[in-house]
Specification:
binds magnesium ion, 7 helices, binds adenosine-5'-diphosphate, 6-stranded mixed sheet, Rossmann fold
Amino acid sequence: MILELKDVIFSYNTRWNRVDVLKGVNAGFERGKVYGIVGKSGSGKSTVLSLMAGITLPQSGQVLLEGVPTSEMDLQEYRRDKVAVIYQSFRLLPLLTAVENVMYPMELRGVKRKEAQKRAEQYLEDVGIPSTAYYRFPATLSGGEQQRVAIARALACDTHLMLADEPTGNLDGENSEIIIDLLRRLAAERNYCVIIVTHDVDVMDKLDVVYRMHDGVLVKR
Ligand SMILES: Nc1ncnc2c1ncn2[C@@H]1O[C@H](COP(=O)(O)OP(=O)(O)O)[C@@H](O)[C@H]1O
Ligand SMILES: [Mg+2]
């Protein structure tokens, strides 16, 4: 088990009220599989993902990476070294080329520029980006290409845990399929654990395990 949630409780406290979102979530995630998290809008899918991504800590219970609770880790280090996140809106750095976007996490880890560039080009090739697009800016790439660059950047994070919040939310059916097939291949061939929040029924059908967020807990469906 690479990631485990144990009795996770989380509420948002605003000035006016308290929203209890997660009410004792238990779930386990293994390498080599693609997981889905589904559920109604506002049910807490993004919240649970942000706990897994080390953006926040639970008020009670634990998020464990290979047995170590995130509450006992340096969260900045966790976010940089342990987990890669992909978003619906891609979130590539607009003033960096595709290659530079992929180099970025490696440079943060101190990989030398030449070496980072070489590996970045390989990752872009792995996700099916044509070499003519390597040195273009994100704005000149299609949505499907931008998401593939985001996946290449996630590969450059050198972790085995990949989280994605609605990774196909801005893509058409054909591009969604390309992205999901790519994520499935990463899980199968590189032993990644991939966790996807989605509400796309076609996507759900292709996942190994699907959890539904309902009344503040995750249930296997
Ligand atoms: N920063 C926040 N402050 C207060 N309430 C929030 C905040 N973020 C989300 N919520 C509330 O928490 C609940 C769960 O949100 P979220 O995890 O984003 O759901 P989902 O991703 O399933 O749509 C919703 O009721 C939402 O309004
Ligand atoms: Mg959400």
